[in-house]
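Contributing new records

If you add data, match the layout below exactly. Sequence lines come first and carry their own label; structure lines follow with theirs. Keep one chain per record. Anything else will be rejected by the validation script.
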Amino acid sequence: MTMTRGLEGIVATTSAISSIRDDVLTYRGYRIQDLAEQTTFEEVIYLLWNGDLPTSEQLSVFRKSLAADAAVPDELFAMMKMFPLDQVHPMAVLRSSVSNLGIYDTDAERAGIEANQTKAIRLQAKVATLVAGFSRIRQGLDPVSPDPSKHFAENFLYMMRGKAPSDLEARLLDRALILHADHELNASTFTARVCVATLSDIYSGITAAIGALKGPLHGAQMSKSCTCSKKLDRSIGLMIISMKRLR
């Protein structure tokens, strides 16, 4: 019997979502460069999930849905404050927090495409609030509630800092989120698919995916660079300086 370690050379599935060919990344057939320059992160999420870019009306409804679902139970922040903040890994906190989100969602066990689409919006919105909240808790600060009037990237920076970012700062983060939105069938995506293939719930699938993403052979190196708002601010500041020098 022939054994293939690590699934190397094995075609596990096909996908129309994203593709990397000749060093060119595309989402649903759109070049990543074009999306980063001409769209927003919310539009890209919609594209990845639905196959087409949203109309202005669809985008407005989608943004309102994200804003409406951004708040998280206070109990999750209270739980974070009980963690050993001087040693806990941020990805471990995110993994445990997402798992606990499922406990508070009365629709967690509902199956079906429509139910999972609703929960996907909730997860997309709430994960940003969890990450920003934990960043502040690590600094001895209270979490900042999401502002429904702000777009996704702008709101994330606002929740991290407690003050509104500049338009340039928000746009830089928006582009970074677009670039990281989807990278084919990587380890965390594969892990999530295996989990939900057992008919487990979406919260279990995303929790499993975060566990895989935490590993040093997958996403841990990237997470080290964004573990607190000071490092994020410094990165954005350097990008702003670079852009101004190029003008």
